[in-house]
Specification:
The chain is built from four helices and eight strands. By secondary structure, the chain is of the alpha/beta class. It has a single domain, classed as 3-Layer(aba) Sandwich (Rossmann fold). Strands 1, 2, 3, 4, 5, 6, 7 and 8 form an eight-stranded mixed beta sheet that branches. The radius of gyration is 22 Å and the shape is elongated. About 10% of the residues have low confidence.
């Protein structure tokens, strides 16, 4: 076995010995595709409307405004947040949620959905704020996920808040690792979209044909 000089050993320790072993490529995830069957199942009865809805970009706190998959070890230190080293989202959770929310609203309601005011004037604005999107470990091999979101429906001309609701969804993860977190978060995201669209359909003022 060849000897390694002290300076080379120090560099190896600082760089993680990248030249001595191959690093594993990061696994990249999204929230999955929205199936036509699922969208049809959650569709509301058609209502004729003449209103347009601006679905604003979902906001997120600084710690969530990245592509990391977050988890907490409640049994060890519940105040500390960790991230998986070799797994990440393809985009920020807020960005992924925004796109799926726009698609779901457009597919299951009669609202004219726009993504920014440069496209068209909007009668109402839907603001969403992601508050929690992480995996929680109650024990080493026992974990669950939590999604927290606040939604606000605003009348654009008057800036009056027509309705506001906090959503919170918890699901057990099928495995105590990153793939388990992604699977549970994807399922919880579908439930969140269903509940949010139901709430939005009831909160929006009915239009007249």
């Amino acid at each position: 076995m060849s000897k390694i000089s002290l300076p080379l050993l120090i560099i190896c320790l600082l760089t993680g010995c990248a030249f001595l072993h191959k690093s594993q490529p990061a696994a990249v995830y999204d929230l999955g595709m929205q199936s036509a069957a699922h969208i049809q199942q959650s569709a509301q009865p058609a209502q004729l409307r003449r209103k347009s809805l601006l679905v604003a970009e979902t906001a997120a706190p600084t710690w969530l405004d990245n592509t990391a998959i977050h988890y907490r070890l409640l049994y060890h230190n519940p105040t500390q947040s960790y991230i998986y080293a070799n797994s990440r989202w393809i985009a920020t959770p807020a960005a992924l949620l925004t796109q799926q929310l726009r698609n779901r609203i457009a597919a299951t309601t009669q609202e004219r959905v726009i993504k920014d005011t440069s496209m068209a004037a909007a009668d109402h604005v839907l603001h969403t704020e992601l508050q929690e999107f992480s995996q929680l470990f109650d024990a080493v091999s026992d974990s669950r996920i939590v999604i927290g979101l606040r939604a606000s429906l605003v009348e654009r001309n008057t800036r009056k808040v027509l309705a506001q609701k906090d959503f919170s969804i918890t699901k057990k993860a099928p495995s105590a690792d990153a793939p388990g977190a992604v699977s549970a978060l994807s399922a919880a995201n579908n439930q969140l979209l269903d509940e949010l669209v139901d709430w939005l359909s009831a909160a929006l003022p009915s239009g007249q044909p």
